[in-house]
Fold these 2 entries.
Entry 1:
Amino acid sequence: MKARGAVGSPREPNFALEAYDRNANFGAEEVEEDEAYNAPAAEYFRDINGNTPLPPITKQLIQAFVERFQAQLNGRQMYEERFLLTARAAADGDFTFIQGQCKALMKKIFYVVDVKLNPWLVGSIEQSHCECAAGSGVEAHCKHVLVLLHGVGDMVRTKTMLLHQVCTQKLMDFKRPRKVYFDSPKQAQKLPCRRTRTVNYLLLKEEDMMENYNDHIKNMAVSYGNTTMPILQTIRPANTYAVENDHQYTQKSLKDELLTDLLLMNPSPEKMLDIERSTRQQHQSTEWQTHRSCRITASNFHAVTHSKASTQKHLAQKILDPKPFVSRPTTHGRMNEPVIQKNQIFPF
Ligand SMILES: [Zn+2]
């Protein structure tokens, strides 16, 4: 029944066959299968570039192809408008197979186009096939085939091919000056300037220029305070240990004096009570922050005891100048501590 072009299977096949005979298969024609285009496997194809051996595809050949099918197609225009996405080629024996992807004119899709070239007949087009509605079989002559032929023809003649470009392929040109400057280069100081007053970069007036001007500038830079101004790189850092190792004129050494000043060494019982009282507000009190910054607390104890020489400087910097620490649990604690204290759940 299928051979007669019937759809589905009849309940009484013999009766149905008789009916088909009587009515000449109900007008169904013998289904002719199109000759299928056999392209090599995808892994044999390589992108076409200037070195790809290709049979000469001339303008005359493309013209002859168009005339053969008496087609009126705008393949050249579509090619110049960059409808071709890719073009690849594979050699199989004497034949050259070309495969390309061509954008559809009105839809946002692309068709795979195949062309088989015969080198013995000077690049004659042996077979062509396209995925579009008009390009079935092995004699496709739709505009997509022409776009591919124009692309490969250009590559043969000029070693270039116009392919579809994505937006990032185009070099940016918004920094390119609009006007081209042809004169000789100008010195920056001679550029036109609206400002009339001249800037004096000297720190001192000329009449006050002293003998040891350089030392004066160095001293000013060093005693400026906490800064990373570039001039400091020209000055050797002071040896802080030299002060400690130097002969002592005071009762206490400088180190001891510093530690006492920071209340890190032998604080009096009154002073201890004082610290306790003034830091009860914890993170809300600046004194609490100050005292914390020069002590090894439980939070950084592990880091300090496990620090290496190479990281100690960084760690000290981190402890001295801590970044505010925030996490979900700490935020929760800070928000709810006053509530709990107020409700006397835990009477502190
Ligand atoms: Zn097509």
Entry 2:
Amino acid sequence: MSDSGNRTSHIRLTSHPGTGAPVRFPVTWGKADPRERGPVIGSVTRPGDRNTIGSHGGSYSLYRALAVSSGALNPMQRPDLTNTSPVVQFGPYPQWGEPGKIVSLDPFGHMVAEVYRDLIAEGVDIRPTIAITKARLTVVELQQAIRDKRLKVDGDIVREQGDISVIKAAVDPVWHLPGIAARFDVSEDKLRRTLFEQTGGMYPELVTRPDLEVFLPPIGGQTLYIFGDPAAITDPKRRLTCRVHDECNGSDVFGSDICTCRPYLVHGIEECVKEAQAGGAGLIVYNRKEGRALGEVTKFLVYTPASGRRAATPPPNTSSAPNASPACRMPASSS
Ligand SMILES: [Zn+2]
């Protein structure tokens, strides 16, 4: 198969690789050594090298398609990974090689530029699925907490101006389909077929390529905010304060009064900062799945004012995710 380019006149069916030859870079999920595990290759620039279903960027792959279709972006464009190394070294840890332990992300996703340097130099299009950088947070409630003496300025974690030092990591989803199926206690066949059907047949390889076990789903990932020394997270002798928070754009960003997500989030950050100042670490895991994975349209439908008051009970048939609450936690006063 030609790797020469993505010609618009030529449709390349991903379900029919052509030669039937085994993939050039097999993935053996659950190996402790990333070289043994193999790189996750979801690039569309060299289709012959692919060993995954889907493509990089999660839901943003569709925006990329729009940019390519309009001629604004060269489909063969590759990211320049120069100076993109993580600002902090994470791992590897023994758990990364335990089969079944990690099934929805690539634990080596931040290390690919280093681990697969030779393959990338050869022209294999391997992309990071995790990026780690540093930032400072300015949160008005926490500046008030400083004025109220609940938080103290230490010049390191909380700085003079009231901003807070943080390490943040963006994590794209990388699904190991057999592992995901096991988590949901369904057969892999059924999982693949349902994913295929419920996306309107978006990824034929789900049902035609059982040899490809890794899927890059077009969904949001996670953002991690780490406070204090990141080494404390993996040190059992040091304390960790952690909040797992589902994205709630309405409250988290806009301060909408329909739920109490932002106060919970801000309180979580405050506790994380205190733990970091006490020698431990704080961790906010921010899941990019609005309304417990239902999306904002469903969420707003649930909360549409009816008869002069908000619907505290969601209408039936709105819960599409297993064990998911219909939307955010409601404040006590409105339930
Ligand atoms: Zn909310």
